[in-house]
Known about the structure:
Elements: E1 2-11, E2 18-27, E3 32-35, H1 60-69, E4 76-79, H2 91-100, E5 104-106, E6 108-109, H3 116-122, E7 126-129, H4 135-141, H5 146-160, E8 165-171, H6 177-185, E9 190-195, H7 200-203, E10 215-217, H8 222-225, E11 229-232, E12 238-239, H9 253-261, E13 276-278
Parallel strand pairs: 3-4, 3-11, 4-5, 6-7, 7-8, 8-9
Antiparallel strand pairs: 1-2, 10-13, 11-12
Amino acid sequence: MDEPIVRHMQRENDGGKLSRSFPATFDSRIGFVQIEVTTICNFACFYCAGREMPQHHMEPVLFDEILAHLPAMRLTVSLQGEGEPTLHPRFWDMVKKVTMVGKHPYTITNCSNIDINQTTRLFPQIGVSLDTLEEDEAERIGRFGLPGVLGNLEQLIAAMGPKRIIIHSVDYGQPLEALRVYIQSLGIDRHVVQPIQPKADYSKRYPELLDNSNERYHYRCRYIFQPSMRYFDVNGRMMPCYSIKGTDKYVSIEHVGTQLAQRVIPDCCVGCREITMRYA
Length: 280
Ligand SMILES: C[S@@+](CC[C@H](N)C(=O)[O-])C[C@H]1O[C@@H](n2cnc3c(N)ncnc32)[C@H](O)[C@@H]1O
Ligand code: SF4
Ligand code: SF4
């Protein structure tokens, strides 16, 4: 059942004030809220849609407002979008605030700029991105300074133990076996391997990696019909998932639902893995 929670908060050309427009809803089945605290990054991953987005940090006042409107239910709040969250100058304040409102903080980091003590103290669990153990390959794909990243990861494990760390990898066709062996050797047992996103918003950066010719839509998006998350982009716009990057094409959660129910692909969802079947 939906209950009113927060209005879309969008920055307009009104001297920097936050204006509130459309009423939005929050489904009581939702257990995960993701907040894009920044689009700025010190890496340049070739597959990252964020590198083409306007580069800025979320306004602290907007972050506070989103938190203040979250319903009083058990929620994980992940501070992460298409940028490196730890680069936000108020990142640690934001993590503390998540805890103060009774939610569980989470984030995914590129592990280049990690504060070991604060991470250990404030995060029950944390995600670290790692795609390869080859230093040259890491440089080539834009994940710079791999020895430093691995050094930080190993310090993190020493401080908080391996069971609180989740490794996230993008599968873009690279060999993954050595990485799997390394992760196991560290005592980490959660390794999430995500196939590279074929959605148009992302795949324009790597058209050569994907063959969409045998793509068919099935229209059954879990994020719409069994919602478990809400995503707030860096401007405070609430969306049903983390995959909509061309937000000019996005109307509303209800609009996406109505179109999918009519077997029409909303412009903001073209090519999304969630609603496609691929045949070899
Ligand atoms: C966008 S990043 C933001 C957090 C942080 N900068 C990092 O890289 O861990 C969050 C996760 O999304 C993954 N990701 C980014 N672009 C992707 C794509 N095109 N397909 C699949 N996963 C992607 C990243 O590898 C990372 O694990
Ligand atoms: S480290 Fe994260 S935010 Fe930065 S370019 Fe890579 S995927 Fe994007
Ligand atoms: S972009 Fe994908 S996951 Fe998001 S609402 Fe559209 S189909 Fe669902």
